Amino acid sequence: MNRAKILGQVVPTRDDGEGSNAEILASRLRRLGEPMKQELLKRATGSHPGWRNVAGAILGEWHSFSSSDVPPLREALRESPGGWVARSLGEIGTPEAIQALVEDLPNGSESQTGFALSDLGAKAVPYLFPLLESDKDAKEAAHVIGEMGSAISSLVPGWIAKAADSNQHAPARIAALRAIAAYGRCPETSCRALHPLLHDSNAKIRNEAETSLRSVHDPVVAEDVSQKCHPSADLFDSLAFDALRCLSELADYGPGASDVGLKLLPFLNSQNGAERSYGIATLGRIGFTPAIPQIEEALRDADWRVEYAAIRSLGWLGDVTAVPTLEKIASEHWLPEMRAKAKQVAKGLSSQGHIEPEDGMFRIDRDVLGPVPPCDSNHWRWGDILFLTPPSSDVRDTRLEVPDGRFLGTNHGEWGGELKWVPSRGEPAVLHKDNVVAIESDEDGPIVLFGLAHLGLAHGYAVHVTHDSAGAWKLTEVARLPTEPSGLIPLGSGLFAAPSEGRIVVFSAKQGILGLASCVPNDP
After folding, report:
1. In which band, very low, low, confident or very high, does the pLDDT at 20 lie, cut at 50, 70 and 90?
2. In terms of DSSP H, where are the helices of 121-232?
3. Beta strand pairing call for 417-423 and 429-432
4. CA distance 212 to 198
5. Residue 282, SS3?
6. CB 104 within 8 Å of CB 119
7. pTM higher than 0.85
8. Residue ranges covered by each domain of the chain
9. How big is the CA angle at 250 (ends 249 and 255), to the nearest 5 degrees?
10. Residue-by-residue DSSP string for 46-85
11. Helix (H) or strand (E) holding 348
12. Which residues are registered as beta bridge partners of 465?
């Protein structure tokens, strides 16, 4: 017991959740045999919070239990819900041990209890079904089942049969549907037995059946998903989250959603570039070949994200007639990553007739951009024009004075920014909500650069601000940059350069992006 006394001198008075030394302590204390285990069990249920945690952590690594240990371990788990002793109960794995874990599960599935139950696999599922019947506790039980993976695949046919059996009580059928949804996979031929449940007289069963069929991506509900999927994003919205959410769900149906392809065609005419790219990617992923002509047109889109999506999608659709156009893009496009992707897809189409869909099909931003070697000289060339990139500045706001007022730009990083027009006479007006990087004069109105990099996402674009026929300000996107910009450099004659993560993008309001400036190396 001397070691226990030594431990007592360093155990904190509170439960700090620390268990990193438990394996070492267990290996040493285990030599003291059954008396030490009983002492730890006693401390795991005692009034000292720190000792309850430490003893529980050590017992979690003890690996020597019998069914007679279930009652004290159960009590320890009641004292420390979701605690370390859940591992011990999972190792014992008797019905009483599993029931003790299930009793504790409503305290939160993302705990040692949830992990222990998921490790038990099919053995624990019958004990989880009563929780699945409960609206209050179903979420935790479903999470555990979802973590079990293919180890419980043999149970799915039984769940389908129970859910489809009108002689079963409604709670049992609902629990089976929730288990199917949690598992997230179902052979299409087997899941057809669930289709009639979409019209069941019990509204709760109808709702759970739809949830389950959507979770397993059964084609029968693709039509319903598509009804809620339509372009709605603002012109400059760089994420278009609503479209991303519904189209990514439809894309998961694969060819099973091809029948709804016609309803997705409006995305190809969206004013928003992100939505166009998502629509193109989805149509390619579900194999909707009637969209090929419109996707081929998108190879000439001014937004490089849309072009990139079109290249990939045509590969997935096996459009071998697009090879000559792809080869031209591979040799002429201003963005190296676009040339590389066009070359890869053209080669795959020529040799195999198609390209297999890839992961991350909706991420077309800095994720597809390769590294750029630094320009040590900081001297750049565009045709006969030589220029430097200006040094970085901590100034976050910018302004441009014009004869009848001024444009004010703010940039608060992740907190946002805006472009405001302050006339010499009249009320100020916010023209656009986004971080303003720079404002420069141009012939018909200023060029304004917007952008942000935050939490792994990045965007940048240049806008031409002009008057419409009624005299109101109109914003027109003239350049979608590879990633966030850091400044705007006037090159003369309506020409501008925007540094964008190692690249210098050259563009004009009239012609859009013209290409990338080249680095002028230092003299040898």
Report:
1. low
2. 125-132, 138-148, 156-164, 170-183, 188-191, 203-215, 222-227
3. antiparallel
4. 10
5. helix
6. no
7. no
8. 2-220, 229-364, 379-520
9. 135
10. SS-HHHHHHHHHHHTTT----GGGHHHHHHHHHHSTT-TH
11. helix 336-352
12. 475
Position 234: which residue type?
D
Token pair 């992006």 is found at 513
> Could you count the other beta carbons within 10 Å of the beta carbon of residue 378?
14
Where residue 12 falls among pLDDT bands split at 50, 70, 90?
low
Instruction: Judge whether 2-220 and 229-364 match in fold.
Output: yes
What are 518's two structure tokens?
């080249």
Structural tokens at position 489: 């450099």
Report residue 18's pLDDT band, with 50, 70 and 90 as the boundaries.
Answer: low
Smallest CA-to-CA distance from 313 within 331, 335, 297, 336 is with 297
CA dihedral 388, 337, 276, 449 (to 10 degrees): -10
CATH class belonging to 229-364: mainly alpha
- Beta bridge partners of residue 417, listed in sequence order: 411
Rg, Å, the chain Cα set: 31
Question: Which amino acid is it at 315?
Answer: G
3-state secondary structure of 286: coil
pLDDT at 524: 60
The torsion region of residue 366 among left (phi > 0), alpha (psi -120 to 50) and beta comes to alpha
CA torsion through residues 65, 67, 69, 73, sign: positive
Distance CA 306, CA 378 (A): 31
Residue type at position 9: Q
Order of strands across the sheet that contains 489-492: 489-492, 495-500, 503-508, 512-516
User: Which tokens go with 277?
Assistant: 């790219």
241 burial type by CB count under 10 A (0-12 exposed, 13-18 middle, 19+ buried):
exposed
Q: Is 53 helix (H, G, I), strand (E, B) or coil?
A: helix
> From its phi and psi, is residue 347 left (phi > 0), alpha (psi between -120 and 50) or beta?
alpha
Token pair, residue 398, equals 């910018």
Which residues on neighbouring strands pair with residue 462, listed in sequence order?
Answer: 449, 479
CATH hierarchy code of domain 2-220: 1.25.10
CA distances from 373 to 364, 378, 484, 503 (A): 21, 12, 17, 9
Find, among 34, 89, 80, 32, the residue nearest to 55 by Cα. 80
DSSP state at residue 391: P
What is the rounded CA–CA span in Å between residue 188 and residue 179? 17
Between 494 and 394, the more confident residue is 494
